[in-house]
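[SOLVED] Need 3D model of a two-part complex

Original post:
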Amino acid sequence: KAGVTQTPRYLIKTRGQQVTLSCSPISGHRSVSWYQQTPGQGLQFLFEYFSETQRNKGNFPGRFSGRQFSNSRSEMNVSTLELGDSALYLCASSTGQGVDEQYFGPGTRLTVT
Amino acid sequence: SQKIEQNSEALNIQEGKTATLTCNYTNYSPAYLQWYRQDPGRGPVFLLLIRENEKEKRKERLKVTFDTTLKQSLFHITASQPADSATYLCALDMFWTGANNLFFGTGTRLTVIP
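Solution:
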């Protein structure tokens, strides 16, 4: 069974630009969660999608958004990039039903200059 | 808001010894708690999950305990090996929100010295 894939793996953007990251979950998984990881703040929850609906959202500004498609693939978008958005962005998939471990992708390393 | 503290940022131990990592949380008690391992440049990998009504869980050389009175979980690696060197993260559920997402501690970087 293929694992969670994320594209691109690395990205360099300039302040003010926007970026879209993609995540393909494990086949059969309907839940995709997004996390931001930085050295100072650690892993922080962004949002979770289940069956194309956002079920929960973390404490991030509206510049961070996401969506999920009917095949469970998910994208997250960050608009008007700031230097502080430089981070490793991880997505995790799970069945989304009940108590469930999450399977993480390798992440997208975003650098904002 | 929920706060999670993992006892130390870094822990060094000798090969063959038992590593003990601590995870303390405040406020509400989670329905379950998970432990993950993360290697540099990679996403976290699930290790163990323990429910609030379970005191202890084991998997091979790994053992997790969960004390809801102390609001603490301990993670043990017995007969540690250099390959166990990694960052270990504890995570609490936010299941009460109806969503499947986790609230992570900042992690403990374990180094097993040969």
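Edit: Chain B has no helices and eleven strands.
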